[in-house]
TrEMBL record:
Positions of the Creatinase N-terminal domain: 2-112
Keywords tagged on the record: Aminopeptidase, Hydrolase, Protease
Lineage top rank: taxon: Bacteria
One matching Pfam family: Creatinase_N
Gene3D superfamilies cross-referenced by the UniProt entry: Creatinase/prolidase N-terminal domain
Keyword Hydrolase: yes
Name of the protein described by the UniProt record: Aminopeptidase P family N-terminal domain-containing protein
InterPro entries hit by this protein: Creatin/AminoP/Spt16_N, Creatinase_N
UniProt entry tagged with the keyword Transferase: no
GO molecular function, one term: aminopeptidase activity
SUPFAM superfamilies associated with the record: Creatinase/prolidase N-terminal domain
Length: 131
């Protein structure tokens, strides 16, 4: 799961993003989660085709993440990887409360591959982005 701006820019191809997450399952399609008000723009410009929105303040990013991971993807106690950057407490708290037994792992080293100082894109399989 990516929630930091730097990796979201890198993997979605977007630069105008706020309140967004990218869920990358071990298999299946990636899902971008964004504010409902940003949904038309994100769907039009994101390299990920599976984009869902949430209505704030009725919902928030953490609650929508739990819904997508648990209900849409079918994971009750998933293994969730985070990169080196921070996760807002409200997002972490929603995941912790909504996905009991969730296993947290560090995925920083698998996100991007460096070769002699040059950053290389680690591509998602085409079936994951479907665009």
């Amino acid at each position: 799961m990516l929630v930091d701006r730097e990796n979201l820019i890198y993997y979605t191809g977007l630069t105008s993003i706020e309140c967004m997450a990218l869920v990358v399952p071990a298999s299946g399609k990636c899902v971008c989660i964004t504010l409902g008000i940003d949904l038309p723009f994100i769907k039009k410009n994101c390299v990920i085709s599976n984009v869902v929105g949430y209505a704030f303040p009725q919902s928030n990013l953490g609650e929508k993440l739990v819904q997508v991971i648990k209900e849409d993807m079918g994971f009750d106690s998933p293994r969730v990887g985070f990169s080196k950057y921070f996760v807002e407490f409200s997002v972490f708290d929603a995941l912790h409360k909504g996905l009991r037994g969730m296993d947290f792992v560090d995925i920083t080293d698998i996100l991007r591959v460096t070769d002699t100082g040059t950053e290389l894109f680690t591509e998602f399989p085409k079936e994951m982005i479907q665009k």
